[in-house]
Predict the structure.
Amino acid sequence: MFRGESRNKVDSKGRMSIPAKFRRVLEAGDPEWKSGENPNLVIVYGGKTREFLECFTVEAMDDVVSRIMKMPRGSKKRLALSKLYLTQSLEVSVDETGRLVLPKEQRDKIGLEGMAFFAGKGDTFEIWNPETYDATQEEALEADEDFDPDADPSIYLDGDEDF
């Protein structure tokens, strides 16, 4: 599972180190990976409104694609999901030093220069421009009728509270 956060440098060629704990998850989620080799992953970059890159293990993306393929051909949901997860994505490999090389188009799309923010999201991780991430998260956590941003978030967990 992808957990935690990290801020890593991005060089002029788009190379950045993937957090080591994320690399272990990528290895486990790549059915073709063997010790000493580099794992593959799928990066979904999406359309104009997507401000981050969403990274999947090969197995996680296979599951997403399987669910899309079960939808009726020509349905708007299948078309939209196919565009996002199949068309607006790319498969890449981690290099031998644990780095990812992002193409210029994807770096430009999210304004990635100098530093990248990695956010673990369980079954995926996201790559953000750090300033965009900070601003977006503050906006997302503004108070509403069902959420108090000043409360301990664990109060929103469903189920037994005796943990």
